[in-house]
Amino acid sequence: MSQPISAEAAARLAALRGEIDRIDADMHALLIARSQIIDELITVKSTQASGSAFRPGREASMMQAIARRHTGSLPLDTAEGIWRVIIATFTWMQAPFNVHADVSSGDGPMRDSARFHFGFTVPYLPHGSAADVIAAVGRSAGDVGIFRADSGVSSLAWWDALTGADAPKIIARLPFIERPDHPAGTPVFVVSKPLADAAVRETILYAARVERWPENAAAALASAGADVIGSAGAPGGLSLLIAAPGSLEPDDLAAALPASAGRAALIEVGSHADRFRLT
Question: How far is CA 212 from each of CA 82, 171, 267, 276, rounded to the nearest angstrom?
Answer without folding.
Answer: 47, 29, 18, 33
